[in-house]
Amino acid sequence: MKQLSKTLALFSLIFFGNQNINAQEIPRLEKRGQATQLIVDGKPFLVLGGELHNSSSSELNYLNPLWAPLKQMNLNTALVAVSWELIEPQEGKFDFTLVDGILKGARENKMRVVLLWFGSWKNGLSHYAPEWVKKDYKRFPRIVLENGKPTETLSALSTESANADAKAFAALMRHVKVVDGLKKTVIMVQVQNEVGVIGGTRDHSAFANSEFKKQVPTALLESLGKNKNELQPSLKKLWEGTGSKISGNWNEVFGNGFAADEAFMAWNYATYVNTVTKAGKAEYNIPMFVNAWIVQPEDKKPGDYPGGGPQAHVHDIWRAG
Q: Which of 86, 138, 265, 303 is most buried, by CB atoms within 10 Å?
């Protein structure tokens, strides 16, 4: 999330309803009518949460003094970042000391935790990826902007990057299940943070350009057709503007403007994040979610904000991915 002037960003998530399930079951989301309830210890849980700064959990000496202010504000949940670079400094070698410290501090203060996985992206950039990822440009390709300028941001079209991130996230969730499966301190996980292309409308690397010219995936087109009457108005208008085509490349299906670029990136970010999320859920199936850098009034096009992220106008593409 964007830098805040205060140490904590407060928010409240409210879930209603009753559900009688065994208290030993893991946290989960329960759908009832139009309401979605977060169930913890067998009953709906009201999250009164405070989000710590990104670096607060990089050292336990920074983190530990922050539990008291959280309690003083009558909060019951802390949103705390876990970065890929700090749990896997060398490929395949994991260190969960910081994670264990987060859980210890939360339990001592009778608080729950929402972990924020800063893996491939945080605020659209890749600052929290490990050094061994950052140094290997061939194995882990980066976004290239339209003017040919390379960036340090991992490309969402890289299967190798997605798999490496997924392995790390799976290891994290496996560890959380082992050390926290019974105590249920961790109640949800955010996967990545505000993903999307910054500074351009899409990835213009040679590989991305090649993929952009290919047919739009059948799975996406079938989803759009199946849910045609429920699509977000802007996406529905965009698709209908080209004749609601059920085949074609990205320009043919979504037009020649930057909206086609954003649709392309939304699909690739969604499938990448889904790869990571599925790996984590296979280890410990608690609620997981993504967040978005909200489009501001002054933003004119994707790239002014992280384009292709889970913005409202591309939610249907994300759901399909």
A: 265
